[in-house]
Amino acid sequence: MLLEQFLEECERLLEAHLSGKREDNVLPELKRFLSLLDRSELSHFSSLGEYLSKFISYLSRIDEFPHDRKVKRLKNGLEMIAKLRNFFLLHNSEEIESLLGRPVSPSTPIKYAYSVGEARSKILKRMDIETIGDLIQYFPRDYEDRRIIMPISSIVPDRKVSVKGRLLNFSAKKASGYTIISAVVSDGFGQLLLKWFNQDYIIQKLRRDREYLIHGLAKETPFGPMEMNSPEIEEIQGEVPREILPVYSLTSGISMKMMRKIVKRNLGLVRSLDDLVPSSITTERGLLPRKHAFTAIHFPKSLYEIRKARESLAYEEFFLFETTILFRKRQIRKEYQGLQKEISGVLSKRLIESLPFELTKDQVTAFEEIRDDMRAASPMNRLLQGDVGSGKTLVAELAMVDNYEAGYQSALMVPTSVLAMQHYEKIKRELSPIGIETGLLTGSLKKNEQDFVRMRLKKGEIDVVVGTHALIQDGVEFKNLGLVVVDEQHRFGVKQRETLTTKGKLLDSLVMTATPIPRTLALTVYGDLDISTILTLPKGRSPVRTIILARKRLKDLYSYISDELKMGHQAFFIYPLIEESEQVDLKNATDEATKLREEVFPGVGVELLHGRLNDNEKQEIMQRFRSRQSMILVSTTVVEVGIDIPTATVMVIEHPERFGMAQLHQLRGRVGRSNLKSICVMVMNKAISDDALSRLREFASTSSGFDVAELDLRLRGPGEFLGLRQHGMPQFLIGDIVNDRDLLFKAREDAKQLMEEDPELLEHGALRIEMERVYSERARLIEVG
Ligand SMILES: Nc1ncnc2c1ncn2[C@@H]1O[C@H](COP(=O)(O)OP(=O)(O)OP(=O)(O)O)[C@@H](O)[C@H]1O
Prior knowledge:
By secondary structure, this protein is of the alpha/beta class. It is 43% helix and 16% strand. Residues 357, 359-360, 363, 386, 388-394, 514, 538, 642, 644, 646, 669, 673 line the site of adenosine-5'-triphosphate. Belongs to the helicase family. RecG subfamily. InterPro entries: ATP-dep_DNA_helicase_RecG, DEAD/DEAH_box_helicase_dom, Helicase_ATP-bd, Helicase_C-like, NA-bd_OB-fold, P-loop_NTPase, RecG/Mfd, RecG_dom3_C.
């Protein structure tokens, strides 16, 4: 085997031992690989041979060592493999030149590319390839390793392999709208069954008795030969070179062979690509220079080179993105002067002293960060994230007190009028004693009431206003707005945030979110914002116990709730539907409320809340629940966000599988908001799928919103997570913010350092040009954010 294959096998072996998958001796296998090694490559480089001997002798006594020393050697062994490979890569980079043809320009329309022309360019356009630049960035979805052609009889199932075989027979069948093409190939010793679904064009490639090269993943079948689904297949003409070839996603009208040829012939483009990442960083991070990475991603010499090329290109994407954000942020700071506020902190101290509890450490830190921002000359642009009930609103309140002391008005914008009312009452209660005038502005107020509030805002008679979307409507003017706080970022788009911030000039803006998002996402979605995080919950809080309960045990739950009610505690019951539906067989809030009120808990006050009630009705219901005139609130998810009832201790969720992870966590966050022990019960139906059940189990095992967010991200991927796609999250071509998160952090760090050393990017012209080209749209959003 070739050196690279030898290294691949060694790596697999050491990793299997390190992870405990293998427990036998290491050395015999290592020796076997060594005996298969084709040493011709070593003869070019004496130092390579020497290093290889060192590697072998380092591992020669490994099986005699105790466990911990063995582990250490395995780890070091893997590092030595990486070094050997890097040595090899450098050697390869000299070969790249020979691969590259004549230079072309990235913006050249695809029809002028080599081997393309008018007709093919139409096909390529269907693959979103409009220019030669797009072509080079059309990355392979997989690779075909032709360095070893396996005998069919030695195929290991579930591993991708290349084999050679003569086509014995083939057939095409149509069944319920599908075309299934089957073929049998043999290499004289073994047979393999090939199958393609709905790939009609394959049939044109098949000729009985011809020899083919086949690449794919073989699966075992209970009877008969192994089977490969949708393999790559190509007729053999002459010698098959030992190489790794790219596999692209294609559309009809273009073959894999042709696509490879087109890419290869136009690869000369990479000559004109300037490095975006400074070479000092590339070297330090062990990444490939751009030219090398682009060449290797299409035509790699080894599997390791593929990995390195991918890593290098993903890093480049992240680096470009992070630099853009930092660069724009700096531009904004330079161009816009903010309100430089004078804050002594006397008033906010008074509020803190009046509270019946102490601030948590994280609340103090977040508050200090906000105050520093408000004192500074540039406008604040900060995200305050913290778990449900961690006390974010209080921090925002303190910031508004500081802002008042500096002589400015503040606005707090929340997503629903019920929440606006709740915040307004709390804020009024706490801020009136220190002389701050508060106001409420929601769409549910009567027109003359709204007019009155608007008039007072304009005159500067209201210092702190709480409201909903009504705050951003035309006709709302402030005398001297200085701080905008937006609660629950996800409910408002960037545009709405923008409208409110332009109400005053160069305002400080604070965004609060109770749905913590993993750090990686925070860096990308909120890359333009500074972030304060409240991790710790107030003293004395214990996590909400989360239980999955079988429906037949509802009686036990009812008796538990009765005991809680006797102690003066309250309960929520959440249903996915307001009323009975003909389409789905789900419990609904209206019928269940009647049942709970009349049969299960008579006489305790059971109220029903849902989205079809008008705002005043909703507020009255909440008011009665808050003052404990009613003890049970039956609701749809309207209570999801922000409702703060410290005496509520039981949250019952019916059909929990209908809700998203973040939503479940928000619902759970409605209890456990004081020192009282609380539980969240998810009632389970028999019909629930295994997947849904395991998702709920995982949810039940978490308690912090940060863990829930990581779990959600892992299960659903970044695109679907919280519907972020609509919120300006950048799409990366090759970088994956979940799997490449470490790379993203590194890029962030490096970009920061680069911006400190060369803030105007004078020494990095190519980076600056590319930045403006790719991210012009995103940069516009950042500017207004
Ligand atoms: N340091 C603290 N110690 C004890 N209680 C606190 C502390 N800070 C806030 N609280 C109380 O905890 C409850 C939740 O606080 P708050 O509403 O500010 O949280 P939040 O993070 O905004 O919650 P949510 O995201 O669910 O809206 C309130 O009743 C508040 O008075």
